Give the backbone structure.
Amino acid sequence: MSSTIHPSSIEQRLQSIESSLQKLTEAVGRVLEATTAKPVPGHNETTPRVARTSNIRALKDEGSPGLFVGPSHSFSFLKEASNNIEAASRASTPSAYQHARSELQFLSTSLTTATTKTESVSHDEGFFIPSKALGYQLIGKHAPTGELFFCTPPDDLLKQIVFHPEQVTQKAWVVYFDYIMLAQASTEEENQANQAANFRRNVRSALNDSSIFLEPREINVQALAILAMHGEDYTSPNLSWMIVGHACRQAEALGLHKPPHLDFESYQRSLSLFWLLFIVDKSCTLAFGRSPFLPVNSYHDVPLPEFNYLLKFQPHTDSRFDDSQSQTPSRPSNFGARYFMGSIKLAKIMGSIIEFLSPGPSAFSRHEIKIQLEKWYASTNKILEDTIEAEKHFLGTAQLKEMSLGLNSMRFQYLHIVIILLKGDESFSNLRLEAAREALFLLPTVVSNWSSVYNGVIWHLLYYPFIPFFVVFENLVHNHAFQSAVTIDHDLKLLATTVSYFVSMRAQMRLLATLCTRLERVAAVFLQLAKSYLGRRTSVSDESRSNNPLTLGNSLSDISSVPTLPAMRQRAGNTLKEKHTDVSWNQYEEGSVLGDDAEIGNLLKWLPADTFTADLFMEREQQNEAGSANTTGFVTSSASESSRGRKRAFDATFDWFSWDAYYMDGDPGQLVP
């Protein structure tokens, strides 16, 4: 049985709907008049305000959202630093307290947000196209950087990248090439600075292609990897982590760990790129306490690259490090290959640490991981030092300095991991503090920039120093009553070394000079807070003041000139005969390595190239001539060769660490392995 609807019925319904809409419109109009004419007192008055405030906050949060970090991570010191500021505020000046609070907020924002501040590139600007002469010069400069991990573009594609970048289908090639060129363009000279701006413009234009992030391709993985690790424009820790995540997901989708039916070279390159991402992934995971993109358990059966293939990894023999002392080696250098293999092993140990620090049961205890970590460092460090000893005869000064940078960077990373692993266990508190002290002491030896490969991820160089910094700061705030005046003095000088470190890094990271200056200020403000809290604006004694002009009474502007190159890294010099084993604070060699007439200029030459600007170096030379620039000799040896009660005796050495007095306070049984 069917029913029919008459036209008159439809018209009635439409009229009814129209009438209802008219009434609704009138009702809404009356409501609007009532709300805009006069606010209703009481609860209804506050509700719109709350809503507007919530909207404003939401808009602000949309610009720089606070990101999640796990309960156990490298940057957990932020919460403790906040508590330490509160403790220090009881005896410090209000201004010191406010400045410290402000700087900690800046540091926290830098570590817990991910925002890009790069200028947008309009379509009208397009890509920078060099002249034919400059273009072919760039092609000639494009060495196969990272040949071990990355495939280089063929000649025809390389020409297209340089002269017709808009026609390149896969824009990741443009990112890869132009960022290498950007890294090589020194910003010290004006013409080079202009070139750097052009390369940066091309990189940003190419990154507008979303396929770089969405389509799994090996060239996309290459471009993202180089941006995440050595991209000075992308040094925000969270931004780097996001880029690493994209690269790891694409590597998983491509199956780089199990490439199908490839020739030997392509297969080994895919494996090497996979393990490179594996290393960086573990570092980022430990930093933020998040889940790894490439879990250890899922990839423990993936084979390592062949050692003969890894012999291609020789960044220290690059043409940038050639000098008159360099010789053509009779065989490839093993240092790079062994360094990379050691880094893979460390990344696996970091995977165990991540599992241990995560909620739930762990297959390993803290002590077991600690023993495993110590064995790794002792073995890897010995292998690398033996390699340097065997290859020193055909390597130049600059090449030896790069290898020394690798050893220093690995030692710093080891100490960093020790600090994270031992956190929360009071039985290891002394060991953790000693690791933090040595990490700060090592800072001048890891000053470097994009031109070095052994220095790891760029943002690690900028933010990781604050981890040992705040361990020492916390000890000064809470345990100063149990420390001798000499020990407190030395710890304050270690905090000052961090300030000096960022001064040096500012000269190295010219694209990040503003950020380095800001981080320098963070360290300087907390140093001043510690000095204000402890009431130690003068040196421990008049004698130490007369012998050492770099006392605590000096202004912060003088701190940047503290020469703190550990002599334990002097082994990259002419002899390279010292054997560095397990470093501890009660071990040091007999006699002087540098000699009584050692000059600061000779000492500083062992730092990576361009560590200090000319002005800083001249300032230190003048201080040396005035008898005020004394440096530290800190050398380690095996326990059987050390003598805890003996000090170095050479006139040109500033006695930073009065070991006898130091060990009146500490537990000599707990040593950094």
